[in-house]
Design goal:
Blueprint (H helix, E strand, L loop, with lengths): L2 H18 L4 H20 L4 H8 L1 H13 L4 H8 L3 H20 L9 E7 L11 E2 L5 E7 L5 E2 L4
Antiparallel strand pairs: 1-3, 2-3, 3-4
Helix pairs in contact: 1-4, 1-6, 2-3, 2-6
């Protein structure tokens, strides 16, 4: 892992920690949505993204986190961290949020264990349980089953 990549990862982790510590939960959800929207606009190359990021406070959050991060670095590390644009940090935060959402989507809502997709062939009858979803016009049905407690949940997507 390169030195630059390591600094971007560390800054993204600090920003996520700062956002997770935000209270109340409604403000936390708003901040996460703002960071996600700014990252989406950055990926699209939309005009006015810098102004929008400044108005929403995303740049301020990243710069405050960078200041906290710089306190623990030596001169060379600090110089390398200063060369990282706020845009890179926001993009990395958004990527980490997407990864966390995809991991959380495959977890049981009751016990937190991983779930696996199960398929049931109906043979012209509906399968037992209300969580099975039909796949197209076939007689196949799909659901997710918890590997820990056995809870059957609707499939994702």
């Amino acid at each position: 892992m390169s030195d630059r990549h390591r600094h971007v990862e560390a800054l993204a982790r600090i920003v996520l920690d700062r956002l997770d510590a935000t209270e109340p939960r409604s403000v936390r959800r708003l901040r996460l949505a703002q960071v996600d929207a700014i990252a989406r606009l950055l990926r699209l190359g939309a005009e006015g993204t810098n102004a929008l990021a400044s108005e929403t406070g995303v740049v301020v959050i990243v710069e405050e986190c960078r200041d906290d991060y710089l306190r623990g670095l030596d001169a060379d590390g600090g110089l390398a961290a200063l060369r990282i644009d706020w845009e890179e940090v926001v993009l990395r935060v958004s990527l980490r949020l997407a990864q966390e959402r995809s991991v959380a989507a495959c977890r049981c809502s009751r016990c937190g264990a991983p779930t696996v997709e199960v398929t049931y062939r109906g043979r012209r009858r509906r399968p037992p349980g209300r969580h099975f979803r039909r796949i197209g016009m076939t007689d196949l049905y799909r659901a997710r089953r918890c590997s820990g407690c056995g809870l059957v949940q609707p499939p994702h997507g």
